[in-house]
Amino acid sequence: MPIHYQISTQMKKSIMAGEYKTGDRLPSENELATMLGVHRLTVRQALSSLVNEKVLYRIRGKGTFVGQNAIERPSHKLSGLFSEIADKGLQPTSRVLEKAVLPAPQKVAELLKIKEGDQVTKVFRVNYADNHPIAISYHYAPNSICPELMQEDLEKQAFHQIFNKKYGMRLGWAEDEVRAGRANKFQAQHLLLSQGTVILKIERVLHLEDGRPLLLTNTVIPGEKYVYRARFFQNDE
Q1: N or C, which end of the chain has less CB nearby within 10 Å?
Q2: How high is the mean pLDDT in each 10-residue block of the chain (237 residues)?
Q3: Where are the alpha helices (DSSP H) in the chain?
Q4: What fold characterizes domain 3-66?
């Protein structure tokens, strides 16, 4: 593996881990070359690749700075957190902390359009980007549609992948509700944050092509790690 690629990969991991924050100025190319024991041109190549990826940006005469290294969710594309992390050039994984079949609580039933008490599979997991915790998610799926979800490996697979490839389901659309909040003790512990850090709470209902709700997901993600990008058009009516 080329040295410049190793350097850029390690810098990206350091930024994701919070060692460098948005707006931080990096050491100069000469300083980094000395620190890493490599040629300055190798450092320049590594930095240039990160600038091209918009992880870093340069200001002439001032230096190289950390850009907004956030997971993006464009409104025009139906995607999940796994693919959004991968789109940033990071390795998505997860750790399942709870998996159970239980009666649907009232709110879950309302959003999935099933009866209260109907069986659902609940999954609670921590999502990682290059082994750094990026989000915690609660998922609920109706057993009437996905009766074998408990048997799936949900640590290395995205729900979209399972639904599409294993079950051959045709996904239709998703509705998101995004709210700001502050991390409580439990959330901060799992995301390695200080209690009170600004977070985003994202409630998503994923629908099949025929309109049936398939998956309810409640995600908590640090505010600075997530960007929701939307496009709006003029309505002439």
Answers
A1: C
A2: 86 77 84 90 90 80 77 68 77 91 96 96 91 91 90 85 85 91 94 90 93 95 77 67
A3: 3-16, 29-36, 40-52, 81-86, 106-112, 159-161, 185-191
A4: Arc Repressor Mutant, subunit A (1.10.10)
